[in-house]
Structure formats: C-alpha cells, structure tokens
Write a structure and sequence with these properties.
The protein is built from four helices and six strands. With 190 residues, the chain is α/β, with parallel strands linked by helices. It has a domain of 127 residues: Double Stranded RNA Binding Domain (2-Layer Sandwich), CATH 3.30.160.670.
C-alpha cells in the first residue's frame, strides 16, 4: 500500500515536469565544426563583419539588433574566459549573420462526426476547420573563423519564431538567451 501512496504523491510532480518540458520554447541549436582543428589554442577573439572574412555581400540593416548581438556574443565569450582583442591579435574571429524567412503553417481540424453501423449504411458527414498561421522565423548564424586561413572552423545555428509584440527589454533578453545558448556549445567537446 505504501508504494502506491508514494507513487500517487510523485505523479503530480512528474506530470508537471512533463508539461513544462512540452511547453518549453527553447530553440534547438545546431552546430558543425572542423574536427581536425585544434580549438584548445583559442583563448582570444575579435568580432568581425562577414565581409571582413569572406566575399559575402550580406549586410546588416538593423544596427540596433547588430549591436545587441555583438554585445551578447562579447559578454557570453568573456564569461567563458575568452579575451576580447583586436582582429590582428585574435586566436579566433567571430562573425554572425541574421536571416529572416516568412513561413506559413496550415492546420486542418475535423470538427464533424459520423456514425456508420455497416459498410452499406449512410454516408460520412462532417466538417473541417482550417487554420492558416503566417509568421516570420529568424535564424542566427554564429561563425568562428581561423584568422590565418580565413576558413570557417565552427558554426552554431539557431532559429526562432519572431514576434512583433515584444518590448525592447524582451527582445534584448531573447537575444542574450539565444546567443548564450549558442556560445555554450563552443568549443566542441570530445
């Protein structure tokens, strides 16, 4: 009897944990890297524009967002023990790019009902509701580049649905959280 009583007391906590994890909005982070590169020698970094390290013509059209991301990267790497230096002295160059994409999700819900008692009886009658959700998804690419070869050595990517209704503080907090979670994956582990 006691094991059942204990299980019944724990059950609400387990259900709450499952519900919290199901409702989590933490975006998924993907990383890729050059496995032959020695990341252990990276102690310092400099944030550079994408055009500095490649022929990319990508330009930032939002200086406010650009400055938020730069500050967040600087803070996250400094908190992990890396030192900010000028590009000429850096062990790694850090670059980032933000893209947006308009997306559409279509959901169909069957709101009708039907009853058949045999294969020859009656026809199915029902109704469907279709919801169309249009939104913008933003993707942040954070690149770590070898300063000598100018070759990409590590990339972290994260995508998240954007909302126009966030306040300035909420947007800053979102950028800080996303950048910190991407930087937490650098350098790659064994």
């Amino acid at each position: 009897m006691r094991p059942i009583a204990r299980s019944l007391r724990i059950l609400p906590l387990v259900l709450l944990a499952l519900l919290a994890s199901a409702c989590s909005t933490t975006p998924s982070i993907q990383t890729d890297y050059n496995s032959a590169y020695d990341f252990s020698r990276a102690r310092s970094f400099a944030i550079v524009e994408p055009a500095t390290v490649s022929n990319s013509i990508a330009m930032s059209s939002n200086d406010i967002l650009h400055n938020r991301i730069s500050s967040a990267i600087r803070a996250a790497l400094t908190a992990r023990g890396f030192q900010v230096v000028e590009p000429a002295q850096a062990d790694m160059l850090v670059s980032f790019l933000v893209t947006t994409e308009n997306k559409t999700e279509i959901h169909e819900y069957n709101t009708g009902f039907a009853y058949r008692s045999c294969w020859r009886c009656g026809s199915w009658m029902g109704a469907s509701t279709i919801d169309v959700d249009q939104y913008t998804e933003g993707t942040l690419f954070v690149d770590f580049i070898d300063p000598q070869s100018k070759q990409l050595q590590w990339r972290g990517t994260v995508s998240k649905r954007l909302s126009k209704s966030r306040t300035m503080e909420e947007r800053k907090q979102m950028v800080d959280e996303i950048v910190t979670s991407v930087i937490a994956k650098f350098p790659p582990g064994p």
